[in-house]
Amino acid sequence: MLTHILKALRGGPVTEDAPPASRDALEELGARLRTATQARLGRSLSIREVDAGSCNACELEVHALNNPVYDLERFGIRFVASPRHADVLLVTGPVSKNMREALHRTWDATPDPKWVVACGACAIDGGLFKDGYAVTGGVSEVVPVDLHIPGCPPRPVELLAGLLALLETSAGK
Amino acid sequence: MYFGEDPLFGLLRRIGKPVAGHRPWPRYATTAGGWRTMIEALGGNGWSLLGLWAEPGTVHAAIREDMAGDLAVVSLDCPDGTFPSLSAARPGAIRLERAIQDLFGLTAERLTDARPWLDHDRWGVRRPLSDKPAAPMPNPPPYTFLPVEGEGLHQVPVGPVHAGIIEPGHFRFTCNGETVVRLEEQLGWVHKGIEGLMRGKPVEDAAKLAARVSGDSTVAYSLAFAQAVESALGVAVPPRAVWLRALMAELERTANHLGDIGAVCNDAAFAFMLAELSRLRELVARTADACFGHRLMMDRVVPGGVAVDISEDGPARLLELVAELRRRFPPLVAIYENKASLQDRTVGTGVVSGSLVNRFGAGGHVGRASGRGLDARRTPSYAPYEDLEFEVPVRTEGDVNARVWIRICEVEQSLGLVEQIVKRMPGAPRNEKGERPLPRVPVEGPGGEGMALVESFRGEILVWVRVNPDGTIDRCHPRDPSWFQWPLLEAAIEGNIVADFPLCNKSFNCSYSGHDL
Ligand code: SF4
């Protein structure tokens, strides 16, 4: 294992350069900021991920953000275990009716100021599941959404670009 | 008479009438008496219950004779809304019967556990898939967990929203000090009504839903759905598509196993392995993206063939990937094997006995780590696996370590399969314009019923489908391998400490979405 670590050290970092913050996301957030008077959070964000009925593919790509190639933590963005420690709720899935209350309670437990990001086609408007008896049809049906990141699932770089836009906006740059 | 020795088709001929137009395996319609005879036969060890599902007024059971690999479906009309329960012979049927009750309003007689399962009283409708959906109950009682009594016991409720980036489910632990005395799962949180959404959809649209039953197994689900539809309609798929599908399926298996091995180590507080293995997983995702245009290869396998052919440089990239993983994976396996702190956590933790996996019919790494060596690529097998060389690893310890080792061995096998497929895949002759035609044929036919059993990284996925003559879906039921694995997690954690639950859970890695539908 030591040789492995030594080799890794000599090989230099595998982490890739960050994509620029998503322009679409910056625009959406800018508009939101003007209307919603969001307080600024400084250059660090804590995210609580909530699966509200996802197929689990969105989760796989959110997971990938933590791998050494994307290394989300270098930007001061990290996933936390409790909504009480979170600035951001990153929500996936069409919000199944069975998860509606749990999502709402998680949102209630997140201290203000907070941002909500709808991740993936399902979270935006229910996606392919929107006509079912068992789904509400998107995150904004249940809690107010600040940023939408499209994709099925969004690629890690797209997620990263969206989150960086959020970071810039919330830091008041 | 000992029914376990009766050949499957012998028994079915005695108890039922064959139904025309069900492919590739037969379906028999039986009576309540015949259904009971089938239940008795299922009490033996030679057969597996592969699935149990309903449509308005009828229940269906899929059965396999494990040695011969014969499959069949048995159907029972239940005009009075009840059918004899399979749960005494096959405890894995309990939750399926509870789900049937929630969705179709058909009740299993003498069901061991009659509480609702998927229905949490939130849909605004009861029995949504039956002929007569009912208004919701005005004041539904809260869900009751099974009573636990004893001195010094306390309960720890967890979920549905968990601490990590994982799917939602509720776990109710009853503990004595640190030791878990009992775990009870409550699932259904991500129920999206997929079976209902598929009804009446054209095959292509339903295929998109099938691809999202459990997104980590999107290739396997698409494959199972495509095979079932193609069987129902008698469509023959171009050979090149068959091989490309297997290629994607093995890439998916590799990616998921690499991620899971890393995640198990991480839950044993060994983050180094997660970092290293997630890099390898990323490599697989990127190669898949470069070859097929999607990191998870979603919607790439479609009824009739494939939606994209492999990119020009794809085969070379895949051989590179195999070489790279063969170079970088074994040193990590050696670290796993030689780190006492890791072995201390995984060896002897979360043991599931061989008799339990057989009773529940659990497949995948959960079954194979406890001596149940079935793999749908072998039994009943499907193309092109008859032409490929691979081994199905089996261990008998049934602990977290054994489940990790099954994955390690399967990664090695999948790499071998990827290499064989790339080298032996039938080529695509170019047409006059120099283009390679897509290996895909139209999906047409007079309608019919089909079934498929496909090995995902988690185990066997069953898909049953009835296609209408107009090309729409009449009824489709996808059965996730997790149905028969989740109940065993409750057994695995008993007597372990609460702190080992994440480790046990990750070593199972059951699907929530695939199960909740
Ligand atoms: S957006 Fe796509 S990948 Fe994400 S949960 Fe929905 S279906 Fe799955």
Q: Could you please describe the fold and organization of this structure?
A:
The complex is a heterodimer of chains A (173) and B (517). With 173 residues, chain A is an alpha/beta fold. Chain A has helices spanning 2-10, 23-36, 57-64, 97-109, 121-125, 156-170, and strands at 45-51, 77-79, 88-92, 115-119, 147-149. Chain A has a five-stranded parallel sheet with strand order 2-1-3-4-5, with helices on both faces. In chain A, 53% of the residues are buried. With 517 residues, chain B is of the alpha+beta class. Chain B has two domains: 7-109, 2-Layer Sandwich (Beta Polymerase, domain 2); 207-429 and 437-481, Cytochrome-c3 Hydrogenase, chain B (Orthogonal Bundle), CATH 1.10.645.10. Helix content of chain B is 40%, strand content 17%. Chain B has helices spanning 8-15, 32-42, 93-104, 194-198, 203-210, 218-233, 239-267, 271-292, 314-338, 340-346, 354-360, 364-368, 377-381, 400-424, 486-493, 501-508, 513-516, and strands spanning 16-19, 22-23, 27-30, 47-55, 58-65, 70-77, 82-84, 107-109, 153-158, 170-176, 179-186, 301-302, 305-306, 448-455, 460-467, 473-479. In chain B, strand 7 (82-84), helix 3 and strand 8 (107-109) form a beta-alpha-beta unit. The radius of gyration of chain B is 23 Å and the shape is globular. The chains are: A alpha/beta (173), B alpha+beta (517). Chains A and B meet through strand 1, helix 3 and helix 4 of A and helix 4, helix 8 and helix 9 of B. The complex binds iron/sulfur cluster (SF4). The site of iron/sulfur cluster (SF4) has 12 residues of chain A, from helix 3 and helix 5.
SSE blueprint and pairings:
The complex is a heterodimer of chains A (173) and B (517).
Chain A: H1 2-10, H2 23-36, E1 45-51, H3 57-64, E2 77-79, E3 88-92, H4 97-109, E4 115-119, H5 121-125, E5 147-149, H6 156-170
Parallel strand pairs in A: 1-2, 1-3, 3-4, 4-5
Chain B: H1 8-15, E1 16-19, E2 22-23, E3 27-30, H2 32-42, E4 47-55, E5 58-65, E6 70-77, E7 82-84, H3 93-104, E8 107-109, E9 153-158, E10 170-176, E11 179-186, H4 194-198, H5 203-210, H6 218-233, H7 239-267, H8 271-292, E12 301-302, E13 305-306, H9 314-338, H10 340-346, H11 354-360, H12 364-368, H13 377-381, H14 400-424, E14 448-455, E15 460-467, E16 473-479, H15 486-493, H16 501-508, H17 513-516
Parallel strand pairs in B: 2-14, 3-6, 7-8
Antiparallel strand pairs in B: 1-3, 4-5, 5-6, 9-10, 10-11, 12-13, 14-15, 15-16
The structure holds iron/sulfur cluster.
